[in-house]
Write a structure and sequence with these properties.
- The complex is a heterodimer of chains A (540) and B (414).
- Helices cover 33% and strands 23% of the residues of chain A.
- In chain A, strands 6-9-10-3-11-12 form a 6-stranded mixed β-sheet, with helices on both faces. A 6-stranded mixed β-sheet of chain A has the order 18-19-20-15-21-22, sandwiched between helices. A 4-stranded antiparallel β-sheet of chain A has the order 2-1-4-5, covered by helices on one side.
- Chain A has 17 helices and 22 strands.
- A two-stranded antiparallel ribbon of chain B has the order 1-2.
- In chain B, strand 1 and strand 2 form a beta hairpin.
- The longest helix of chain B is centred in the N-terminal third of the chain and has 30 residues.
- The two termini of chain B are 36 Å apart.
- Classes of the chains: A alpha/beta (540), B mainly alpha (414).
- Chains A and B meet through helix 10, helix 11 and helix 12 of A and helix 1, helix 10 and helix 11 of B.
Chain lengths: 540, 414
């Protein structure tokens, strides 16, 4: 590892954490962690889920007290009992879940708690002017008078950043800031982060996405199991090196799987339309597609362009307004969910916490779903065979490498990656000719991603068809035999594996025509696509 | 099923002894135990404040409820309270709240008394027919509420509650006019013919105990509920719907059909309770006798308290029955008004409702009760004690049509 921890003499770090230890019963969340962040630096703190990044940041921000260790800001030792003290010392944090008042305007949200006053009353004009000035200075593009509830999520996040800037935060801690953003929004955020660093602010970026770390950070500190495993200068490292430090093993990031050998149709969709209600533009408009056994068909697109609705309509969770759907040759246009599943469909939904699983039910119960009416799990007269349920769970856990103390734990206690492996395992075990998969690796750690991808390819090679919807272009490119691009509810491009590249797909995702050259295309769309490409290409 | 059995698996108990210890600890520190104990302490303070001796008063509650004179009454009280608790627990297990227990109860009573009065068959056959008629009447009325939700979009909470009022008014009219006992000043029906009644268990002295074989039917209902819940595919679907309605729908559980069936079962059981009641002393239907004691609300509280788990619901229903009967005993012995037991009921519920800060994940009590912590692992519910600890949790009610009505009726309807 390039251990560049030793700082030049006389160089005072903006933030320095020394020997931080934090114990939870049975777990050492932070084990003598040192973190040193120079002024004006974008410093990425990386690690898989549970590596201790969040604990470390909570300690820095005064949300938790360390059991040992010191915190120094510009050479002065601090001990924060609460975030209020941390904010006073010039720190600011944007949490994963935003803390905004949806019904108030941007300005009201930003100045809340430290409103400028005139004769004891809130001075709205000054407040607005100062917020507008901050927006201009940092190129944040946030309308100061808009109601927060009306703003897209990416803009709401910039409101959170505005709040910190308004309080003169010198150090901004951003916790998984791109987790909720579309690729375009993520790129815009990264540009904002760069601008903030240029203006002298120090950024701590907590993330497990390699792509954005490579794109934006100056230095990286990697944690694994509560310890620092690497301190790297971004310019001198590679994604593979970071991934190795994060997981402790080599991960092939650019692996593309060999192409499949398509056979008969397992899904045929003709003219599928899902309306959004009277007068509104349809959510899914006249979509036709085919998935054959032995191929993975990827559906790319910026989130919210009808992909989710398409899959829900196919799975029977959303009524169809027009069109035909054939699963394994059977028309299931108005069939119930259960009938569709019997016809040969399995489904890994996007929302694994509430749709794909019952959080408070045991892992065994979650894995039994769909197998519970037939032998071997059910005996005669609809009675369940508990031993068979446990065995079934044990088999799925074993085969898909789900890490759980036992099948009796509630599934909600597992990490996102393990929940996903369990759900994927259950659906694959159904052995249905067609598998619908939505965002299979969202919020999943890097080690599990590799595993999940391998499972999908394995499933395809066993002669099943897979329809894959993902917002991660890298995932689409790594797995798909064919790529469909959705834009505003329609399929705007269909690209065979050979022609599918980041540029062509990115262009189509932004509404451009990938068959024309980028130069000839609409300049806005071209811009969007090219700015999307570099980051998303690396997102693992 | 497997989950609740080995509920403490995250702890990695090293030995059976450790596992048992954890279970015992889980039971002792379960929210229910703590709430009951806290309510008893608070009740003791109130008692002391009124000048009574708390220990004597509690002693008289116990003897009142379980002494040789009280135990019969307690068991008798269990028929409507446990019966309705089970009836309301059935849909609650799937996150559905049936608020129409009163209507289903009185329709069951009316159907049974009508059959009892006019059946041309021998009395034994008539009794069976009356029970079946009661179940059918309650079940159909509850099913109507389900249809209103699944077909017309009226939330079940609303449809079941609102259907209850016309049912009660209709029954009241029937009792006061067409079926009214001739020449009686009391709004009650004619007495059922001799022999048309549920046999009673005899007491030592030979006098009737007031406990009819109806209690056997309620026990039977509880056993059936337990077996279906724990052991069958249908019960599994119900539990999964309660734990995650969208999950169940995604996996192919037909919610409309499930709602209809559960409501029919729920209403049938409520109707059965009504039928059992009119087939016992005083062998007729008295207007208001079924609804005034608030069995529906006490039953709903018991079901909520136990998160609709079969064993817990019975235990909670029994607890409330004993508290009610014990309260009468206390009033006779110590001149403490029996309303205090209603206060105790209310305080138990209140403690469970506010457990947020204390019992929630990471709260001091939960940690203490759980022993060594595994960070980030919220504790599984140890079914250890009598009652499920998951009661009143978001798990049950969030998945329902709307929020819980529970704490508002903390007085148990008294």
């Amino acid at each position: 590892m390039n251990d560049q921890h030793a700082a030049a003499p006389g160089d005072i770090a903006e933030v320095e954490m020394r020997g931080i230890v934090r114990r939870f019963p049975g777990v050492l969340a932070n084990d003598r962690v040192d973190l040193r962040v120079a002024s004006g630096e974008i410093h990425a703190v990386m690690g898989e889920n549970g590596a201790g990044k969040s604990t470390l940041m909570s300690i820095l921000y005064g949300l938790q007290r360390p059991d040992a260790g010191r915190i120094l800001l510009r050479g002065t030792e601090h001990s924060f009992g609460s975030p209020v003290q941390a904010i006073a010392a010039g720190l600011g944090m944007v949490h994963q879940g935003f803390k905004l008042f949806p019904s108030l305007t941007v300005t009201e949200n930003v100045v809340y708690g430290s409103e400028p006053t005139r004769r004891g009353l809130v001075d709205r004009a000054t407040a607005r002017a100062r917020v507008a000035e901050l927006v201009d200075t940092h190129g944040l593009h946030v309308p100061p008078d808009a109601r927060v509830a009306d703003l897209p999520i990416g803009v709401q996040q910039r409101v959170e950043i505005l709040k910190l800037l308004y309080r003169d935060a010198r150090v901004l801690i951003l916790d998984e800031p791109t987790a909720v953003l579309t690729p375009a929004e993520a790129d815009r955020l990264l540009a904002v982060i760069r601008g903030l660093a240029r203006s002298g602010r120090t950024i701590l970026l907590v993330t497990h996405k390699l792509g954005e770390v490579m794109a934006v950070s100056d230095r990286v500190t990697v944690l694994r199991d509560g310890r620092v495993t690497a301190r790297l200068a971004t310019a001198e490292t590679t994604p593979a090196e970071i991934a190795l430090a994060m997981t402790g093993r080599r991960i092939d990031l650019d692996r593309t799987h060999p192409a499949g050998t398509p056979a008969a149709d397992v899904l045929e969709v003709r003219g599928l339309t899902v309306s959004a209600g009277r007068g509104a533009k349809p959510l899914v408009e006249n979509v036709s597609l085919t998935v054959r056994a032995g191929e993975i068909v990827g559906v790319a697109g910026v989130a919210g362009n009808g992909q989710s609705e398409l899959v829900e309509a196919l799975a029977g969770l959303r009524p169809i307004d027009a069109g035909r759907v054939l699963v394994a040759g059977r028309d299931v246009g108005d069939a119930s969910v259960q009938q569709r599943r019997r016809a040969g469909l399995a489904y890994v939904p996007e929302d694994r916490a509430t749709v794909g699983a019952a959080r408070d039910a045991s892992l065994a119960d979650n894995l039994a779903m769909g197998f519970h009416r037939t032998p071997p799990l059910a005996g005669r007269g609809g009675f369940l065979r508990r031993a068979a349920i446990r065995e079934h769970a044990a088999r799925v856990i074993e085969r898909f490498g789900v890490k759980a103390a036992s099948s009796a734990v509630t599934i909600g206690t597992l990490s996102g990656g393990n929940q996903q492996k369990a759900i994927l395992g259950r659906e694959i075990t159904h052995d249905a000719p067609l598998l619908l998969v939505e965002q299979p690796t969202r919020g999943v750690d890097i080690g599990s991603i590799e595993n999940i991808h391998a499972r999908l390819v394995e499933y395809r090679d066993a002669g099943h068809g897979v329809l894959l919807v993902s917002a991660e272009l890298s995932e689409i490119l790594a797995l798909s035999d064919r790529v469909l691009v959705m834009y505003e509810g329609r399929i705007v491009a269909e690209l065979p594996r050979a022609e599918a590249d980041v540029h062509a797909i990115g262009l189509a995702m932004a509404g451009g025509d990938p068959t024309r050259s980028a130069a000839a295309a609409d300049p806005d769309a071209g811009d969007d696509a090219s700015s999307t490409a570099p980051t998303t290409a690396h997102q693992v | 099923m497997t989950a609740s059995k080995a509920g403490t698996a995250t702890e990695h108990p090293s030995s059976p002894a450790a596992r048992v210890a954890l279970r015992v600890r889980g039971a002792v520190f379960s929210p229910v135990t703590v709430s009951v104990v806290a309510a008893l302490i608070l009740g003791a303070i109130i008692l002391a404040g009124t000048g009574a001796d708390p220990l004597t008063a509690y002693g008289s509650v116990l003897t009142g409820a379980f002494g040789s004179e009280g135990i019969g009454d307690t068991l008798g009280e269990c028929i409507p309270i446990v019966g309705l608790a089970l009836a309301l627990a059935i849909p609650l297990r799937a996150g559905l709240v049936n608020l129409g227990g009163d209507g289903q109860l009185v329709l069951g009573g009316l159907a049974a008394v009508s059959v009892g009065l006019y059946s041309p068959f021998p009395s034994a056959v008539t009794v069976v027919l009356a029970l079946l008629a009661g179940m059918l009447a309650g079940g159909l009325w509850a099913a109507l509420a389900a249809v209103l939700e699944t077909r017309c979009g009226v939330p079940l909470l609303v449809s079941s509650l609102l259907l209850s009022y016309p049912a009660m008014s209709f029954v009241s009219y029937m009792v006061r006019f067409p079926l009214l006992q001739k020449g009686s000043g009391i709004p009650q029906t004619e007495r059922l013919p001799e022999g048309v009644k549920l046999p009673e268990f005899a007491a030592g002295s030979g006098a009737g105990t007031g406990v009819s074989v109806g209690i056997v039917l309620i026990v039977l209902a509880a056993v059936i509920y337990f077996v279906v819940d724990h052991r069958t595919a249908a019960g599994y679907e119900v539990r999964m719907t309660g734990l995650g309605a969208r999950f169940a729908g995604y996996a192919g559980v037909d919610r409309s059909r499930l709602t209809l069936r559960l409501m029919f079962a729920s209403g049938s059981l409520a109707g059965l309770v009504g039928a059992i009641t009119v087939l016992g002393f005083p062998y007729r239907m008295v207007d208001g006798a079924l609804t005034t004691p608030g069995y529906t609300w006490t039953g709903l509280l018991a079901a909520l308290l136990a998160a609709a788990s079969p064993v817990g619901t019975v235990a909670a229903g029994f607890f409330f029955s004993a508290l009610t009967i014990g309260g009468f005993g206390m009033e006779q012995e110590t001149a403490v008004p029996q309303q205090l037991t209603a206060v105790l009921q209310a305080v138990v519920i209140l403690f469970l409702a506010v457990r947020g800060g204390v019992f929630r994940k990471g709260g001091w009590l939960r940690r203490f009760g759980r022993g060594p912590d595994t960070a980030g692992h919220p504790p599984p519910d140890p079914e250890a004690g009598v009652l499920d600890t998951g009661m009143l949790t978001t798990g049950v009610l969030d998945t329902g049509v709307a929020g819980p009505p529970a704490p508002a009726r903390g007085d148990g309807g008294k």
